[in-house]
Amino acid sequence: MTLLLSHISKFISLTPEEAAYFESVLIRKKLRKRQYLIQEGDSVKYEHFVTKGCLRTYEIDEKGQEHVIQFAVEGWWTGDLHSFISGDPTTLNIDALEDCELEMVSRQALEDLYLRVPKFERYFRILIQNAFISTNRRVLSIMKMPAADRYKAFIERYPDIEQRVPNHQIASYLGITAQSLSRIRASLWNEKPEQSVRISHADPPHP
User: Fold this and answer.
1) CB of 70 within 8 A of CB of 56?
2) Does 132 map to a domain?
3) What is the pTM of this model?
4) Residue 14 sits in the same domain as residue 111
5) Cα angle vertex 18, ends 12, 23, to 5°?
6) Cα–Cα distance between 186 and 178 in angstroms, integer?
7) CB-side neighbour CA atoms (13 Å) of 160
8) Do the beta carbons of residue 94 and residue 88 sit within 8 Å?
């Protein structure tokens, strides 16, 4: 609970009793690497906080091509808010890129939490606002920024994720091909070899 309570404390202050009640409504879950958290067609019943590991959220188009929407590592919430709120089947898939541990809260538990500890409404409102802003920035970057600049912004903002995720999935997140990403990385390496981008040695061959 230390990581989650630390995250919450950045936005609201809880009494020991409030923290204990919050902990009592959480469900803990472990995932093995490559195991699904959510699959397309599921009705999402929980919001998930990552305490260990890395997950990716993606859609699959009619041609079977994966489109990565988000990565989530320690200290991040992940899920499908639309399906969580509406009960509609999700169009998303979320799977574990590493062994993961999660804290989960159901919709009913969250509604009860808002009534019993109203300050949690502020906490989750801030999270949703930040997620909305981040999504808008990403859409605008794909529309306006050259691919190389998108990649540089990604590794500057998420250096830890860049080291934990296969290159072809980063390329999907950036909206480019794996081959284009390889060219961009090679170009950056040649431009500044003494300050080159870090290369992950764990990346599998491109499919």
Assistant:
1) yes
2) yes
3) 0.85
4) yes
5) 100
6) 12
7) 8
8) no
